[in-house]
Design brief:
Blueprint: H1 12-24, H2 28-37, H3 43-74, H4 82-109, H5 119-127
Length: 160
């Protein structure tokens, strides 16, 4: 990855955590507490905390997948069996998820990132969750004393 995070970096999470702490001038625990106390006060901080949590979760999943794969490989003869290949695919999927989340965190931290200025930024702002009351999406229950509505179909005729 560009911007000081090499693809060989063993700890993408630590590098991005440092950047988050520098950007908001507080430690991650403090930032999480501030966002939990007032989630709408700083939408940027709320987004970064959310995606950082997803990144940490993805890294944890990757670590477990790598440990499982290494354990399986140590018991394998010269050829790798299908279950072990499945573990290798799981590692690849976990790397993809972790890297995708890291990209989102990097984008959130970059004020000059594509899409953060101009028309694209306005569209993005419209996608933010609203803080006002939600619009009712279900039909209200009819009053209990109403009768069934008259059918729009004419009554059926008797067959001759």
């Amino acid at each position: 990855m560009p911007d000081g995070i090499s693809e060989d970096s063993a700890d993408v999470v630590a590098v991005l955590t440092e950047r988050i702490e520098a950007r908001f001038d507080m430690g991650m625990d403090q930032l999480k507490a501030a966002v939990a106390a007032a989630p709408t006060a700083n939408p940027d901080a709320t987004d970064v905390v959310k995606w950082h949590g997803l990144l940490v979760e993805a890294q944890s999943t990757l670590d477990r997948a790598e440990e499982d794969l290494l354990a399986a490989l140590q018991t394998q003869p010269s050829e790798v069996d299908d279950p072990t290949m499945g573990l290798a695919y799981r590692v690849n999927a976990a790397v993809t998820a972790r890297d995708g989340r890291a990209i989102v965190v990097r984008w959130l931290l970059d004020p000059d990132a594509p899409g953060k200025k101009g028309v694209a930024a306005e569209r993005l702002a419209r996608l933010r969750p609203r803080t006002g009351p939600a619009v009712q999406t279900t039909a209200p229950n009819p009053p209990a004393a109403t009768t069934a509505p008259a059918s729009a179909w004419p009554p059926a005729r008797a067959a001759r």
